[in-house]
Amino acid sequence: MAKSIMIQGTMSNVGKSILTGGLCRVLCQNGIKAAPFKSQNMALNSYITREGLEMGRAQVMQAEAAGIEPEVCMNPILLKPTNDMGSQVIVNGKPEGVMSAAEYYRRKKEYIPAVMEAYEKLSARYDVIVIEGAGSPAEINLKQDDIVNMGMAKMADAPVLLAGDIDRGGVFAQIAGTVMLLDETERRRIKGTIINKFRGDISILRPGLSMLEERTGIPVLGVVPYFYLDIDEEDSLTDRFRKKSIAGLVDIAVIRLPRISNFTDFAPLESLEEVSVRYITSTDEFGEPDAVILPGSKNTIQDLLWMRQNGFEAKLLRFADSGGLVFGICGGYQMLGQEISDPGGTEQKGTVKGLGLLPVRTVFCPEKRRTRVEGNFLFPEGMLKDMAGVPFYGYEIHMGKSVLEEDARPLTLIQEEGAGGNGGAYPDGSFQGNVYGCYVHGIFDAPETAEGFLAALLKKKGYAASGIRARDWKAYKEEQYDRLADIIRRSMDMKTICEIIEKGNDAPCSL
């Protein structure tokens, strides 16, 4: 069975996901077969595996950093919030229904066998499992039924590294307070602490590190600098949403829906020097974009009503009427249609009028469609007419079925891939004027798609698109993971951490 190490944090957004990914990359570079694991993740950014199963994108990032194929056993429980009080619960890649927070916490221990089965599958095939916690291990009202922090560390008998975020301030209180609220057996699992997101002169910090070690009896094994790398983050915590400035030749506005999902679809566009991608939450931020994108949503009807109530519907209709390019993906595509109906209450029971910009009607059904796909654009008109035949790849993940109205034409031809689909070809999406929509997440990952989309926007502005090349997105991500590993090696005591991994929970934790 594999050895293990766990990254826990003093709170959410201390950088656990990135640190876990970085550790996976270092181990991979060292020739060690490592795999990530997070027993329970809460996120709206999800991914479809080759088997047609759904998992959180943070573990996908970590698997890519480890140089391995993402598998659903790396994230056996995924919670996708549908509103402030409930989430869709996905176990081993398949939805089990929507539960309130209270119901899930009552039933959480029922999922321990699924968690351990997934963990043991990985443990049998890898040398090291790098486990990520969630939130804080010191949530004293939740500790009794914990399956993701110290509860998971106990089940896996994993040594723990505790990370704190110095950029928020109070990092010494974060770490010392967390340690204080743990019981003695839990404290003994913590073999080292990490100060993350440090800016400034480390010589000023060192006296505090010594005092922290004295008070906790736990060595500080790293001070990781604040850095920016283009790596997928947990959806609710990303810095991407705070970027508002316009710096590129092309300005793309993404409407940040309250339940936005899979905004990683737009990372390839964000990486282009010629493009500025802004996530906007009010019509005051709309400006004069070259294109507007409607992203996916975990509650399409509710987010459509939010747009209507906040003036985005009128803005979009005027923008489209003036010839502006509008592109919708998944839930965004459904909103652009004539009508959305949810007769069974899959997300929110009822029928609402869509934005009326595409000749399509959507009906929700209980069964979720989960499949990897590839395909090509057919013969779109309008600004994207030159994209006819352009290939792409991605995945579908939705619970609605959209039907084109009579005489309407599809945007793309799709070929299903792997066990998640039936292996057949079928049309997808729709277009009308300069408004386009489809179900394919990750459609801009293919360089040809990103280049074609950018070329169309540049052409309208009178710029030549020659010489502009989209990044090879997969190669670009590999570069980012290597840079992350370099930072981890420089800022963390990898020799001691490797010794901790080797010795497991028997490694000494006192100075």
From TrEMBL:
User: Which family would the database say this protein is a member of?
Assistant: Belongs to the CobB/CobQ family. CobQ subfamily.
Q: Which gene encodes it?
A: cobQ
According to the entry, every stretch annotated as the CobB/CobQ-like glutamine amidotransferase domain falls at: 251-447
Where does the record place the catalytic residues? Answer: 330 (nucleophile), 441
Enumerate the spans annotated as CobQ/CobB/MinD/ParA nucleotide binding domain. Answer: 5-226
The reply to whether Amino-acid biosynthesis figures as a keyword in the UniProt entry is: no
Query: What's its job?
Result: Catalyzes amidations at positions B, D, E, and G on adenosylcobyrinic A,C-diamide. NH(2) groups are provided by glutamine, and one molecule of ATP is hydrogenolyzed for each amidation.
Q: Does the keyword Disulfide bond apply?
A: no
What keywords are annotated for this sequence in UniProt? Cobalamin biosynthesis, Glutamine amidotransferase
Q: What is this protein called?
A: Cobyric acid synthase
Task: Give the source's domain of life in one word.
Answer: Bacteria
Annotated SUPFAM superfamilies: Class I glutamine amidotransferase-like, P-loop containing nucleoside triphosphate hydrolases
Sorted alphabetically, which Gene3D superfamilies does this protein's record hold? 3.40.50.880, P-loop containing nucleotide triphosphate hydrolases
Q: In which pathway does it act?
A: Cofactor biosynthesis; adenosylcobalamin biosynthesis
Q: Which organism is it from?
A: Ruminococcus turbiniformis
InterPro entries with a match to the protein in the record? Class_I_gatase-like, CobQ/CobB/MinD/ParA_Nub-bd_dom, CobQ_GATase1, CobQ_N, CobQ_synth, GATase_3, P-loop_NTPase
In terms of Pfam families, this protein maps to:
CbiA (PF01656), GATase_3 (PF07685)
